């Protein structure tokens, strides 16, 4: 622990321990900051022109809480900022952390906020300096950086901002306070209503952004469930050219009557085709724009199936290891100040990037293809040029490689592609053969494994050439409902309509899953999700209004540019909330009954595995033994003494019915999740042929 009688020093506050270690090492003249500890709290001592102490937070150490204690009442409109250990269970470690920071602040004479330069980081640093350091927010300076590389950290320290970013802090305080007011009042109203009716506790929640997001999903779910498929027919022809078969599509995508479809088939029967026209089109495919966090999350979901929350967590780890720039950005700009050339030179030492970087470095000018979106705090996401100091785990390696290749691709030339459309006349009926090829790779070379550019090469074909039609195929089809949202497309939708922030959208989507309002990767709204939205729409439609939420977002953003005052936005938000909460209180019994029944159905739904394959009439469910308390899968006909089917289950972890049958035996399947292990799907049929096949394969491998 730093002694009280030692010389005065500069105290730097960071957001995370990894950032503290990197900042201390970068600022120490010898590059070897000394790690110290007080009560289990790490901090770092560095020597420069004067001693420096760098102490980390662990995210938010302070939060908004009600002024009087108790969780069983609402409305709540009075609040204060308190240490998290006073407001949250399981946050005892925060007390020790704050005590250490307070002790370290006593002998400092200079204070620097070096938390991440965004709304959340600004709030974290401000609260620590104001409360834990005894009101030092007025005299503290600010470090602003976008990467944790040594060069940028030294520059940020040499060019300290003279004061904290108070406009950003005001915007952050307002957002936290409004979100807390909405969340605590609405969530308590729902939870208390259900508990008072049923006598059983279940956590229900909604909020300023969560409600409108659920509304998108319910609207899509309703359109899917109410969708009535209509039949149509599709025709295609198999054409033989130079001994190879190519598939040509009929000129009309959808044929609405079977009579018309059969007439076309009859007209083509036994006939050959003649090439009527060949149209070539060349077009440029511009390089992609640099990644902002939303684009990175969408791309990672599309390519790897990573949820937005998982991608953000991985990107944050890569940032803390100084491999990429700050990820929570909405910018699509890469300013020259980041030194594009230096980054590419550093990346060239990686064998798989060597040729690609050399190609870019040989260009006369490195000019990125930037997008329109800007972020006053940070540029777009880019690789720092630093190389990993450890072997990256597969998900980390994938995201880092994706960021590197996207960075290279934005400096590439446009790709030149060519499409060809061949019109073939078969007895008056027209079919089209389509080809597509890349004439000049341009930026596609750099984005390599992540390019989705399909190549369809056609042989040499000339006008009036006769072609053999091998067969004409008629397919019965039905129109399809709109697609379900997935976490990636939902995040994109939230971004498009302007609700939530780049830092919160992924968490809001995760909360909908955690509350069991939605399930599955292709998002399905549960009965509970439907009922919660129904309650909100019936009794407080303003809360699920996308326009209202968007207007609040815009006003909070204006606080950052001093175009709005925190007090005005806060007062208006409370005025909107008051009548809403009163309405919920008045209708508490009705709401409680509706939600309690939905919770009961949801809990039952979670336990249903599928139809019993033994008796055929019962339902397999996850049951618990009255004698031992152990869980197992059993048939509901057991209670009628008609079927004694039962199967054991692992007693650890969570069990989730998958709603689909085993491809080997057709029995229902479940998924088992145990902490620290990868989830696996379980077919509980002891005689499943896939199990025997797997056993034989394992035996053969062990013999080899």
Quick recap of the structure?
This protein is of the alpha+beta class and 704 residues long. The chain is 40% helix and 21% strand.
Number of domains: 5
Distance between the termini: 59 Å
Mean pLDDT: 91
- The number of distinct β-strands equals 23
**Unreliable stretches covering 5 or more consecutive residues:** none
Structural class: alpha+beta
Radius of gyration: 31 Å
* Assigned CATH class of the largest domain: Mainly Alpha
> Strand order within the widest sheet?
2-3-4-1-7-8
By DSSP (H or I, 4+ residues per run), the number of helices equals 21
The CATH homologous superfamily of the largest domain: Topoisomerase I, domain 2
Largest sheet: 6 strands, mixed
